[in-house]
């Protein structure tokens, strides 16, 4: 088995007294697509946000592409490690988070130029390649207000890819979209997966998880309750909470 590019070890997260993640450990090999599923409030998004330190873990450690960050570490060295992890992870949010006063192209080159210090000409080349890849090159000079939700999310994916990450994190990327726009974003995500990107995806889109994921991890009450290949998980769930989740999906009650 290849070495993990993401390694989460004994992770705990508290919000005050609320114990949101409970001793979570998981490894993700390079080029693997992992979908995190579970009911709302199960800890999926918190786990994802801990990977790039948008949430601070309370205990345990995160390692991304060889950069190891213990939760209890402090000081300048830790800040540098967190910065290094963030450079290695691209993040796609529910709500797009595009700058409204910038064009599509300006949005996509902002990170590479200001955070990574990439030459602007090179950043534009990368941005245009990625916009073309997600089918948004023709909108490069538009402002976000003139885009549909699906188009905004495809720009957000291009923006994350232009940072040349080693791992892509998707936090329910279709949950803010109208139903007719979900497919266009899922198709772009499938394309990114087929190109060999390591992906961790929090999603309620069970069809996507079944078709695209190499592994599906089920979370409940801050714990990992099942971790399996899609065929086994959907056809023969071991945990009753997984079975209940799949039954709801199959009955169309998501």
DSSP strand content: 25-35%
Element pattern in H and E: EEEHEEHEHHHEHEHEEHH
Biggest sheet record:
6 strands, mixed
Structural class: alpha/beta
Overall form: globular
SS field, number of helical segments: 9
Count every beta strand, where a strand is a DSSP E run of 2 or more residues.
10
Query: Cα distance, first to last residue?
Result: 35 Å
Strand order of the largest sheet: 6-7-8-3-9-10
Walk me through what this model shows.
The chain has 254 residues and is of the alpha/beta class. It has helices at 44-51, 75-88, 104-114, 120-133, 149-162, 179-194, 206-212, 230-235, 240-250, and strands at 4-15, 18-29, 33-37, 59-64, 67-70, 89-92, 167-171, 198-202, 215-220, 223-228. Strand 7 (167-171), helix 6 (179-194) and strand 8 form a beta-alpha-beta unit. Helix 5 packs parallel to helix 6 (179-194). It is globular, with a radius of gyration of 18 Å.
